[in-house]
Write a structure and sequence with these properties.
Helices cover 42% and strands 16% of the residues. It has helices at residues 21-27, 31-34, 49-61, 129-147, 157-163, 168-179, 183-200, 209-215, 221-232, 236-242; strands at residues 6-11, 16-19, 65-72, 78-89, 95-104. The longest helix has 19 residues, at 129-147.
């Protein structure tokens, strides 16, 4: 499962016009508290001045930026912020936005597996289409976390696209660009994480591994074992052994 990824959208003058829920979860600031302010509100005495200057130069040059900087949460706690900032242009090649993707470096040691923080991933910054893509992906993540749609074995790309008021082709493209996989694999990432949490939770010790799999949206045993190993690198049985648990496999 992808870690929380804060998204900050500013106007061309770098005033914040939108942030996602992950931004609030990481920083403690809500959308209403930051609208109209600049992202520098997260900086403080421990924020490295050399990094601030590099970011400023990149913004002025209107080029993509990747940096790490010490930022401050609303409660005053210092954290390592790993970020990528992209300029967004309209069809006339006029700068209209900056969009930043940030993760908590205290939680994410290696961000290479996160496409949004990889400058080699070509972000579509030539129009507002790229911003809309990010918004849809953020809404998709919120929907999965809050509604746990992945627990329903019948959930489909069409179902989710309808809920997000988009079409299946575009939603599939969004998932591919933002998560680097297809819809089914994206769902299975959440299902495997859910299975891991249930395997560890004593409340589910009365269930077999396959019984837990069924509760996590998997339809059959062989698919569960294959997907679990593909995503986790180990089998469900090895995961049980790693955690010194006793669960019936059948």
């Amino acid at each position: 499962m992808l870690p929380p990824i804060a998204v900050i959208l500013t106007d061309a003058e770098r005033n914040i016009i939108w942030v996602n829920q992950d931004f609030t979860d990481i920083t403690g600031y809500t959308l209403l508290e930051v609208v109209g302010r600049k992202p520098s509100l997260l900086q403080g005495s421990k924020s490295e001045q050399t990094v601030i200057r590099r970011i400023r130069r990149g913004l002025e040059a209107m080029v993509p930026i990747k940096e790490e900087i010490m930022n401050y949460r609303k409660n005053g706690e210092v954290y390592l912020c790993k970020l990528v900032i992209y300029p967004v242009f309209n069809e006339k090649e006029e700068l209209i936005h900056f969009i930043a993707f940030e993760v908590d470096g205290n939680v994410v040691q290696d961000e290479k597996h996160i496409p949004l923080l990889n400058l080699q991933e070509k972000y579509q910054s030539s129009s507002l289409k790229g911003v809309e893509e990010v918004k849809i992906f953020t809404r998709l993540q919120d929907l999965l976390v809050k509604e746990k749609l992945y627990l329903n074995e019948e959930v489909s790309l069409r179902t989710v696209a309808d809920m997000l008021k988009t079409n299946t082709k575009y939603l599939s493209q969004v998932i591919n660009h933002r998560a680097g996989c297809n819809f089914q694999h994206f769902l299975n990432i959440y299902r495997v994480e859910e299975a891991k949490s249930k395997i560890i939770d004593p409340k589910f010790r009365n269930l077999t591994l396959f019984g837990i799999a069924l509760q996590c949206g998997f339809k059959n045993k062989s698919t569960f074992y294959k997907v679990f190993k593909d995503i986790s690198g180990i089998t469900p049985r090895d995961f049980v052994k790693q955690n010194n648990l006793s669960i019936v496999e059948a």
